[in-house]
Design a protein that fits this description.
globular, 48% strand, 160 residues, eight-stranded antiparallel β-sheet
Amino acid sequence: MAKIKRELFKTFINCTPADETATYQVIGEDLEELNFEMSANVVRTSNILGENAITIDRYEKTASVEPYKADSGTALFTFLKGIIDDEKTLDELKTDIVNVDVFGTETSGAYPAYKEDVFVEITSYGGNTEGFQIPFNIHFTGKRTKGTFNPTTKAFTADA
């Protein structure tokens, strides 16, 4: 067994959700950490015998991308700035991300991955002297597809 370096678990976001062809960009530049909060829905009940039961029936996953230092030459900046400029809401905020296990078994340049529908929430924009920043939250819908992802071609292939 070997410890896994964080850089071997990559998250790609689709920056052109309205297009037929996805444009994936890796999230991580300028980030020292990126965590996916599982936020399990836990139901606890007790019966008259003093016994406790716990049920976990779903996860309400989120992730916070902060800071995001804007780079005008990227598709992610264009996507996020479009949300700000047009004050997008509802399904206009929907896209997908792909979490890729680059530490997993590689097959023809592709690695094990999960693609999931998400909504992007801009929390603020502006920043300090370090540059223009657009921190955002990712809210997962729970609609996931297992497959493989090639980080070079940025192509996701769903399992059969």
